[in-house]
Amino acid sequence: MEIRIAEYAGFCYGVKKAIDDTEEILKTEGPSKALGALIHNPLEVDRLKKLGLQVIDTAAEAEGERVIIRSHGEAKQVIEQLETSKNTVFNCTCPYVSKIHRIVSDYYAKKYGIIIIGDSTHPEVIGINGWCDNSATIIDTVDAARLLEIDGPTCIVGQTTFNTELWENMINILRSKSEQVVVFNTICDATAKRQQAARELASQADCMIVVGGKNSSNSKKLYEICRSICAATYFVESADELSYEEFAGDVVIGITAGASTPDWVIQEIINKFRRRGNC
Ligand code: SF4
After folding, report:
1. CA of residue 125 relative to chain centroid, distance
2. Closest atom, ligand 1, to C-alpha of 72
3. Which of 57, 152, 233, 249 has its CB surrounded by the most CB atoms within 10 Å?
4. 124 is catalytic
């Protein structure tokens, strides 16, 4: 048995920064609230809760205390509501997401229509839409791109974790509909690199393990990519979901992990195989 870890597996820059900043805030300022799960990984959220983090679902629950905005970012109105309600706001929005907020805000002010390519239910996309008064058209399929009518100047941005191939296909369709389209490829480099490294490893491995929270969209996308190349792909949140016996034999096991998967979870899985598997 051989274990290979994909390059760029695990925390991206924005998530690592948000987690590091949160640990520092909890240490220096004391117990604080996070608006929404800080990252899409329940194991890591549980660890932070033990350090004094409380997760709240709405800005109204902040109640004049310390509030952390997660790396996904929030709608403009939500941040303003928090700031005017005497809360102390620590904005841990990833700088790459903040850049999308600025683009959307600027072009909306210039009377452009806004299209977001991404998952309409994802907090990052909901947050981005909140920088153009929730007026964006949100699509995430080639069929939706084909059906969409583009009317007047239009600015297109993408969810940072969107699939790069799908993005290219959709953009080609949208560009062919109008010359008044301005496109910002806001897919994060980290995502593209992680997806490409996962593709390469999946083509070499006998089986792939994708580690990530079940509610993590970028982990789910990694799973889909790996499974399209390597049929024996497993999506797990922790080492507990894997049994060594399933994988025993002369196999190459590839491991990759979503942007919200902490190193310690990946390491637990590696250790589980290493203890039994002579690898
Ligand atoms: S994937 Fe990229 S944009 Fe999203 S949080 Fe990570 S570094 Fe930031």
Report:
1. 10
2. 5
3. 233
4. yes
Residue with CA at minimum distance from ligand 1 atom 7: 14
Of residues 77, 49, 51, 81, the one with CA closest to residue 63 = 81
Pairing between β-strand 233-236 and β-strand 207-211 as defined by DSSP bridges? parallel
**What are the distances in angstroms from CA 220 to CA 16, 45, 164, 225, 234?**
19, 18, 14, 9, 11
Q: Sign (positive/negative) of CA torsion 276, 220, 128, 74?
A: negative
Q: Is the CB of 127 under 6 A from ligand 1?
A: no
What tokens appear for 147 in the block?
């059906």
Taking CA atoms only, the protein residue closest to ligand 1 atom 4 is 160
Map out the domains of the chain with their CATH numbers.
Answer: 2-10+190-277 (3.40.1010.20), 13-94 (3.40.50.11270), 96-189 (3.40.1010.20)
Is the CB of 190 inside a 6 Å radius of any atom of ligand 1? Answer: yes
Report the nearest-CA residue for atom 2 of ligand 1. Answer: 188
Q: How many CB atoms lie within 10 A of CB 135?
A: 11
Please report the atom of ligand 1 found closest to the CA of residue 95: 8
Q: Which of 2, 124, 179, 237 is catalytic?
A: 124
Q: Distance from the CA of 249 to the center of ligand 1, in angstroms? A: 37
pLDDT 10s digit of each residue in the chain, 279 long? 899 999 999 998 998 999 999 999 999 999 999 999 888 788 888 999 999 999 999 998 988 789 999 999 999 999 999 988 889 999 999 999 999 999 999 999 999 999 999 999 999 999 999 999 999 999 999 999 999 999 999 999 999 988 888 999 999 999 999 999 999 999 988 888 999 999 999 999 999 999 998 888 889 989 999 999 999 999 999 999 988 777 777 689 999 999 889 999 999 999 988 877 655
Q: Can you give the pTM of this predicted structure?
A: 0.81
